[in-house]
């Protein structure tokens, strides 16, 4: 019989770093390695830190891995001259990371930036993806509304003036706090540690230039929506969708089109905001465990 101490050690989160193309990629890992794997891909402007509360619960039954992208969290932050900060290239790095840690088959949790990164990987390796967990991340034009107007202006005209609009409106501590609190039921339930930790990373010398490059690169994603939608239709990955309806960045309008292409879709609209895990992490964990039991 396994002792309670050794059982605890198997689910305790490990904080690791691995080399991928000379980059240090930081990741959180927990659970038995022979259990079905869940990959957690974070959004902007955060890191694997956003999954800190659900990893212990999920790892009681599953193997969980959550990496930080280059330029985010505790991974390397090479300069713009040293690394191409594009969604294509970040997806390549994450794909190489998954191969290096031996993640050959997995359930893929994607949120915000994690969606265009994860969908690139899924479309490239459909045989590896056993299913999707989608949380406030777009694959349809319907979800890109008012919030995106200044970003779209930057896509069309990459000038210092348009860049300053984005820096002033999206890269400040007030903007980071807003991402966590806007659309929530109870702002007092959201820990300020979130935006303090994220902002400390954003305020590193050179990081805002990286974020502006990623804002610009986001313009390459809508052109790939038809390819990702074709992947959904052809491969029909079992999908759990959990979406904070108060999200101004990715409003609920972007959630419903998934119904057009995915036949095996479990669909939940939650009364919370962009970072739904902060307010509804327990509920989302419960939904994931039920979904995994059926589909892994």
Structural commentary:
The chain has helices at residues 4-11, 55-58, 87-100, 114-124, 149-156, 160-170, 173-181, 193-202, 207-217, 225-235, 258-261, 276-295; strands spanning 14-20, 23-30, 37-41, 63-67, 106-111, 129-135, 239-244, 265-270. Helix 3 (87-100) packs across helix 4 (114-124) and helix 7 packs antiparallel against helix 8. It has one domain (4-145, 222-295): Alpha/Beta hydrolase fold, catalytic domain (Rossmann fold), CATH 3.40.50. It has 296 residues and is α/β, with parallel strands linked by helices. It has an eight-stranded mixed sheet, sandwiched between helices. Strand 5, helix 4 (114-124) and strand 6 (129-135) form a beta-alpha-beta unit. It is built from twelve helices and eight strands. The chain starts with a helix and ends with a helix. Mean pLDDT is 96; it is low at 1-7. Helices cover 41% and strands 17% of the residues.
């Amino acid at each position: 019989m396994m002792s309670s101490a050794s059982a605890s050690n198997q689910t305790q989160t490990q904080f690791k770093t691995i080399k991928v193309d000379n980059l240090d990629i930081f990741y959180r890992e927990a659970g038995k390695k022979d259990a079905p794997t869940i990959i957690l891909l974070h959004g902007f402007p955060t890191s694997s830190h956003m999954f800190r509360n659900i990893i212990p619960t999920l790892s009681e039954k599953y193997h969980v891995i959550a990496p930080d992208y280059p330029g985010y969290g505790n991974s390397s932050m090479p300069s713009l001259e040293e690394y191409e900060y594009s969604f294509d290239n970040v997806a390549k790095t994450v794909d190489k990371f998954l191969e290096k840690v031996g993640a050959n088959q997995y359930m893929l949790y994607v949120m915000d930036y994690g969606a265009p990164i994860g969908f690139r990987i899924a479309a490239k390796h459909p045989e590896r993806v056993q299913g999707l967990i989608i949380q406030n991340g777009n694959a349809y034009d319907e979800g890109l509304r008012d919030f995106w107007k200044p970003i779209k202006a930057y896509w069309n005209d990459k000038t210092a003036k348009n860049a300053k609009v984005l820096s002033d409106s999206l890269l400040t501590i007030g903007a980071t706090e807003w991402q966590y609190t806007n659309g929530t039921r109870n702002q007092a339930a959201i820990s300020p540690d979130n935006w303090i930790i994220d902002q400390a990373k954003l305020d590193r010398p050179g990081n805002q230039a990286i974020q502006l490059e990623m804002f610009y690169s986001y313009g390459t994603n809508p052109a790939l929506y038809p390819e990702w939608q074709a992947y959904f239709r052809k491969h029909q990955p079992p999908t759990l969708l959990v979406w904070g309806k108060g999200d101004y960045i990715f409003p609920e309008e972007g959630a419903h089109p998934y119904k057009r292409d995915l036949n095996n879709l479990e669909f939940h609209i939650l009364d919370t905001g962009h970072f739904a895990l902060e307010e509804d992490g327990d509920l989302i964990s419960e939904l994931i465990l039920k979904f995994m039991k059926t589909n892994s």
